[in-house]
Design goal:
Layout (H helix, E strand, L loop, with lengths): L2 E6 L4 H12 L6 E8 L2 E8 L2 H10 L6 E7 L14 E3 L2 E9 L2 H10 L10 H13 L4 H11 L2 E9 L6 E6 L4 E4 L4 E4 L2 H4 L5 E4 L5 E5 L2 E5 L11 E2 L15 H7 L1 H12 E2 L2 E2 L12 E6 L1 H18 L3 E5 H4 L10 E7 L5 H10 L5 E6 L5 H5 L2 E4 L12 H20 L5 H12 L1 H9 L2 H11 L4 E6 L4 H15 L2 E6 L16 E5 L6 H12 L4 E7 H7 L5 E5 L7 H20 L17
Parallel strand pairs: 17-18, 17-19, 19-20, 20-21, 22-23, 22-24, 24-25, 25-26
Antiparallel strand pairs: 1-4, 1-10, 2-3, 2-4, 5-6, 6-7, 7-8, 8-12, 9-10, 9-11, 11-14, 12-13, 15-16
Helix pairs in contact: 1-2, 3-4, 4-5, 8-13, 8-15, 9-13, 9-17, 13-14, 13-20, 15-20, 16-20, 17-20
The structure holds fructose -6-phosphate (F6R).
């Protein structure tokens, strides 16, 4: 969601804030703003749309000052207008916020009755007004901010800046992450370490409920009860190359292309001399059931995981969408393991589901990309996917990274349950080791896919079909296409087609069929022929055997290398991603920052 940054620097803050916001723009991009204190005076600039607009505005209306806060917004309350853009200001207080203040209506009424009516539609402005109210009553800035925080319900990361205070930012975290960066005589605050990467590598993560008085000398941190808290300063490794486009037109293109390397790196980390080395703590011997919880693409990774765990380890698996999970009161076995899959590790629904499972299951395991994230830290065990920073809003390398870790866990479970011998596991690991090479071959189909995408970009609706392990891939292919090209797309289990969706088929609706030549292939081909009999245009994504067996009649056939059957979903993710990518490029949509979306969804 929104990105937050704060600077107490030695140099002018505005350019530093802008640079840091650029690195956070992937989180939200419908408006942006900064506020600084200069010669004791608080002032701000805000602009609707991409950060570039704010940067242009600052050329004409510069903002001096070495202390400042900045924000890039993903609107929750109130439209994306300048008035609703952050920082919000009331009298001597300016505030930037990520999250939702759930009790803002009550607070608003209370403050309006006191003559402090809001000027915007946002929940955030209430925070600034409340702090101002406490200052009007005579509280100094620190106390006013602390008193304000006590009144807030919901999830937030906040930074306060005050008139007359050129060496103070109050930072607070509840539900949304916030990191404090330590420089030499300078201090920084950011929604995540990426924002602070070139400024410092010494980071303190605030914990749930913490707030901090940040000055150039350091940060005084307090816990939720107002007690002084010691939080570690950690040295983080931030490979800046991984947050550059490196010659690619889009982050998404770079991240798709990185997958063979990411896969090889992760395999090297988890498989040593041909032997699977997951942490001992992942022990499935006593486990009777698994519950997977995630959102979006990560949820589809879990659906694939279900096939693997059931088939290899014989373990029953439930897979839930995080935002639904808590509300259906699922009965949970104390011998079960709950597994939470999340690229960002900050997805509010997934985190809430994790907390819901605490004390109900034997173990909470997470599969994350960001190892310092809330989900990682609140799990009994966090398994990193090691994909490196993913900037493109549409998840690509994180998806295949999640699939790999789930596949490795399923193999571990199969061993623990006595369903596979070491030799059988080792054979499967050898199969996984072929994936980086196969992925490279799949990537070489990019030009061919780009040609197909030009035609696809002219359509309004697309269906994706898959059977068995390829069914979740059909869902993922459709999600990828709709989120970045805005073409309506749906994924279906091939066999479901004639139970309704076939009514949509005509010459205008392309149907993408994802079907390696496996034991289910013939059945999928039958479904494909049902489409073709109704003049549907079929794009068949298969291997050479599948292409030969399918015979003529498809609109297009895309041939991938043959892949070990079990792990085909990992390979088939690549054409699904490339198809979405090239279609979006052909349509001219914003690939890395598609409309209405944000990278890290920290509100429920
Ligand atoms: C789609 C996409 C989203 C995320 C979902 C969960 O391309 O990126 O559907 O997968 O928002 O996010 P994480 O994995 O960060 O929990």
């Amino acid at each position: 969601m929104c990105g937050i940054v704060g600077v107490l620097g030695k140099h002018e803050a505005a350019p530093v804030l802008l640079e840091a916001l650029k690195r956070l723009e992937y989180r939200g991009y419908d408006s942006a703003g900064i506020a600084t204190v200069h010669k004791g005076q608080l002032d701000r600039r805000r602009a609707v749309g991409k950060l570039m607009n704010l940067s242009d505005l600052l050329v004409h209306e510069p903002l001096a000052g070495k202390a400042g806060i900045g924000h890039t917004r993903w609107a929750t309350h109130g439209a994306a207008t300048e008035r609703n853009a952050h920082p919000h200001r009331s009298g001597p207080v300016a505030v930037v916020h990520n999250g939702i203040i759930e009790n803002f209506r009550e607070l608003r009424e209370e403050l309006t009755a006191k003559g402090l009516a809001p000027e915007t539609d946002t929940d955030t402005e209430t925070v600034a007004i409340l702090a101002r109210h406490y200052m009007d009553e005579g509280m100094p800035p620190r106390e006013a901010a602390a008193a304000t925080l006590k009144r807030l319900e919901g999830a937030f990361a906040l930074c306060f800046l005050f008139d007359g205070e050129e060496d103070l930012i109050v930072a607070a975290r509840k539900g949304s992450p916030l990191a404090i960066g330590h420089g030499e005589g300078e201090m920084f605050v950011g929604s995540d370490a990426i924002a602070l990467a070139p400024l410092t590598d010494r980071i303190t993560y605030l914990e749930e409920g913490d707030y901090a008085f940040v000055t150039r000398d350091g940060a005084e941190i307090f816990d939720e009860e107002g007690r002084r808290a010691n939080r570690e300063v950690t040295q983080i490794k931030m490979d800046s190359a991984r947050i550059e486009k490196a010659g690619y037109k889009h982050f998404m293109a770079k991240e798709i292309a990185e997958q063979p390397v990411v896969m090889a790196d992760a395999l090297a980390a988890y498989v040593k001399s041909g032997v699977l080395e997951l942490p001992e703590a992942v022990d499935f011997r006593e486990v009777d059931r698994l519950t997977f919880v995630a959102c979006g693409t990560a949820y589809y990774a879990c659906l694939v995981g279900k096939y693997w765990f059931e088939e290899l380890a014989g373990l029953p698996v439930d897979v839930d969408i995080a935002s639904e999970f808590r509300y259906r009161e699922p009965p949970m076995s104390p011998k079960s393991v709950a597994i939470f899959v999340s690229q960002s590790g900050e997805t509010a629904d997934t985190l809430a589901a994790l907390r819901f499972c605490r004390d109900k299951v034997a173990r909470i395991v997470s599969v994350v990309n960001v190892v310092t994230s809330s989900i990682a830290r609140e799990s009994d065990l966090a398994l990193p996917i090691r994909a490196g920073v993913e900037i493109g809003v549409a998840s690509t390398k994180a998806f295949t990274g999640q699939l790999l870790v789930l596949a490795l866990m399923a193999l571990k479970a199969a061993g623990d349950k006595g369903r596979m011998t070491d030799a059988e596991i080792s054979q499967r690991l050898d199969e996984l080791a072929t994936l980086p090479g196969l992925m490279n071959q799949a990537l070489s189909r990019s030009n061919q896919i780009s040609e197909i995408a030009k035609e696809l970009s002219e359509t309004r609706d697309v269906l994706f079909l898959g059977r068995g392990r390829m069914f979740p891939l059909a869902l993922e292919g459709a999600l990828k296409l709709k989120e970045i090209s805005y073409i309506h797309a749906e994924g279906y289990a091939s066999g479901e087609l004639k139970h309704g969706p076939i009514a949509l088929i005509d010459a205008h609706v392309p149907v993408v069929v994802m079907a390696p030549h496996d034991k289910l292939f013939d059945k999928t081909v039958s479904n494909m022929h049902e489409v073709m009999a109704r003049h549907g245009r079929v794009l068949l994504i298969t291997d050479a055997k599948g292409a030969a067996a399918a015979k003529a009649g498809t609109w297009k056939t895309l041939t991938l290398p043959e892949v070990p059957e079990l792990f085909a979903p990992i390979l088939y993710a690549i054409p699904a991603q490339l198809l979405a990518y090239h279609t979006a490029v052909a349509k001219g949509t914003d690939v890395d920052q598609p409309r209405n979306l944000a990278k890290s969804v920290t509100v429920e």
